[in-house]
Amino acid sequence: MYIEKLATNLNRQDEQPNIEVAEMLVSHEDKEGVLEIVQGLKQKKAIANDCIKVLYEVGERNPQLIADYAASFLDALLSKNNRLVWGAMTALVMIADDKADEIFQQIDNVIDAYKNGTVITIDNSISVFAKLCRADKKYEKELFPLLIEHLSTCRPKEVAQHSERAAICITDSNRELFIETLENRKQDLTPPQTKRVDKLIKKLQA
């Protein structure tokens, strides 16, 4: 029913049909429809690309509707199709609070996708790592050093955005190291980038 409404099957080059499918699924809280779209991830590339778009658009509006499919998104991280990989990482951000344990069980695959992924994959993986850190001290112990390493070495233009993504997991015990890392990066940043980082530091110190 929903697969036939996807952009590819309508011979459309834009994403609007996929967004409309997502909105229909959300408005009807259609769990069977969501399952149909999840199963579409196994179809040909164009259909799979449409389906992952629908799923993270659903997740943005109602994460609970896609929360049961963490395993499908984790599997998609192993795909050779970059669109599927970054779309799956985007979806994982939306369910990481509820599915932290399930995601952490396959953290090696998430880290591999982060290390080998496109810019969007990397952006969203930082949010996944931060949410897992926030969910459990055990996860923080393993993943917070990765976040610090990333912020210490990423491209200057990524420092502000990625530090903002990571900041959700900052606590009294890790705040000092996080701020110290950002202070050390300021020498690499432009004035506008520095201003953005300073704003975050001030917020964390409040």
Automatic annotation (TrEMBL):
Instruction: Please give the superkingdom of this protein's source.
Output: Bacteria
Give the protein name, as stated in the record. Answer: HEAT repeat domain-containing protein
